From TrEMBL:
Originating species: Cytobacillus purgationiresistens
Domain of life: Bacteria
Protein name stated in the entry: Primase C-terminal 1 domain-containing protein
UniProt domain Primase C-terminal: residue ranges: 282-347
Pfam families, per database record: PriCT_1
Length: 475
């Protein structure tokens, strides 16, 4: 192990070094020392260190592997790259490289050595899986939501966050790699792929994670100019597997308890007079409690979902509606609301919100028709004595996500008004606010004149970021 640290120790002593870490140190940590320390030929290390290292390797029962690297994305698209066997090579060439495979392969070669067409980076040739990585293909993302999502889901802290030209890449470094072999038809590989899939699906509810990318392929190589966050305590593999199992069980239970309304398709809300009246309105503005642009788009989207309209069809129609508004929402905000409407949380458009929108933004001729439906699937709430407090909390958080913003993080009013807004009894609201760790409550005044302000922790943090009161989170 002493010999393994030589490259890192030497770079630490480099007077030009201006960071707490060096790229080769990060890569050595990510790959679990699964490459040779020195080049087999042409090493610049002193002879005595090379001899000592070769002696130590003869006693090592584990064979070293390789990683594949490429100088740019264009070369990578053409299958061009280099097979790297040592950390010394990575250290020398890191500034010339853009991509690499942080998961180690048994070996590699070239289809065409002269043109550097690499061969061997196939899933069956993987030696060990060292990291679970994923892409975020947009810069328009709240990075704090990524870390908050890990915390709320029970996932460990991310080990590495890289910035890419189009977005970000994040990694969990496993404390125990998945060692790949063909026993039981590559069972360990299938388990790792399943874990990766579950992590990406879970985090996609917080940020725009690419759930369709190849889990163990090429990623951006870590360098000082693209590393935003590095944490050198690896994630527990056993705990991640336990989490993955629980995540699948929870999703399975959720799907088994979904009971769709037999009459869900009996009435097409998108053909109603109120829907047509509302979708023709173009002067809907922001800032109106319960009747803003956000609420209008959410209500129309829920009507599409409840009527069985495909997401693509709803997107096209409501995108046109949003474009016709005098003050349209941003594309990101529009897509977030549409995603929420199609998440399965809501059964149909809620009468009180439809009537509020019609009264404020139309001539008032159209009236609400259809079934009251703004509640979650599973067993209808009117058939239950009382809803679970966890469901009530989810309702409030969903509402706050849609109706608050970093500029206006709090929703305020009397407890009675807030309870009516959330569709629950005052006693239920009090209990939810008392139990919840995700909702912040502030009270101003006493008695009938008291005003209660509520906000989600995530939105409140976004406000603090906006005001510049939270700094240095990632660095």
């Amino acid at each position: 192990m002493e010999a393994e640290k030589t490259i890192v120790q030497e770079t630490r002593n480099n007077p030009k070094r201006n960071s707490k870490w060096m790229p080769v140190e990060v890569m050595q940590f990510m790959t679990h020392n699964s490459l040779s320390l020195y080049k087999k030929k042409g090493s610049h290390a002193p002879l005595d260190k090379l001899v000592a290292y070769e002696k130590s390797e003869k006693l090592n029962p584990y064979k070293k592997g390789v990683v594949f690297v490429s100088p740019c994305k264009a070369d990578l698209a053409e299958g061009k790259g280099i097979v790297v066997t040592s950390y010394e090579t990575l250290h020398e060439k890191v500034l010339e490289l853009s991509h690499w495979t942080p998961n180690t392969y048994r070996g590699g070669t070239y289809y065409n050595f002269k043109k550097r067409h690499i061969k061997g980076h196939t899933r069956e040739n993987l030696k060990q899986i060292n990291v679970i990585g994923f892409d975020i293909d947009t810069k328009n993302v709240d990075l704090y939501a990524l870390y908050l999502g890990c915390e709320e889901l029970g996932l460990p802290r991310l080990n590495l966050l890289l910035e890419t030209p189009r977005g970000f890449q994040a990694f969990f470094v496993l404390d125990t790699p998945f060692y790949i072999n063909n026993n039981k038809e590559y069972k360990s590989l299938r388990v790792a792929e399943r874990l990766s899939d579950n992590i990406r699906k879970a985090l996609s509810k917080y940020v725009s994670v690419d759930t369709g990318c190849v889990p163990f392929g090429f990623y951006r190589i870590p360098r000082e100019d693209n590393t935003l966050d590095f944490y050198d305590e690896p994630a527990s593999t056993s705990q991640l597997l336990k989490w993955s199992k629980q995540y699948e069980e929870q999703n399975k239970r959720a799907s088994l308890h979904v009971i769709y309304d037999k009459n869900a398709g009996a009435f097409d809300q998108t053909s109603s007079d109120w829907y047509h009246a509302l979708i023709r309105a173009t002067d809907i503005q922001k800032g109106h409690h319960g009747a803003s642009r956000n609420n209008a788009i959410l209500t129309l989207a829920i009507a599409n979902y409840a009527s069985g309209k495909p997401l693509e069809e709803a997107y096209d129609e409501l995108d046109q509606f949003n474009s016709n508004l005098e003050q349209p929402l941003s594309k990101n905000e529009f897509e977030r609301i549409l995603k929420s409407a199609y998440s399965g949380k809501y059964k149909g458009a809620k009468r009180t919100y439809v009537e509020g929108l019609l009264e404020l933004w139309t001539d008032g001729q159209a009236q609400f028709s259809g079934r009251e439906g703004w509640y979650k699937f599973k067993k209808p709430r009117e058939e239950r004595v009382r809803s679970h407090y966890e469901e009530r909390e989810e309702d409030i958080l969903a509402y706050l996500e849609t109706h608050t913003s970093p500029e206006m993080a709090f929703l305020e009013g009397s407890l009675k008004m807030l309870a009516e807004t959330f569709g629950m009894a005052v006693s239920s609201l009090k209990e939810v606010l008392k139990r919840s760790k995700k909702i912040i409550k502030r009270s101003i005044g006493q008695g009938r004149a008291a005003v209660t302000k509520v906000a989600s922790r995530s939105m409140l943090f976004k406000r603090l970021l906006l005001l510049g009161l939270v700094t240095g989170f990632l660095l």
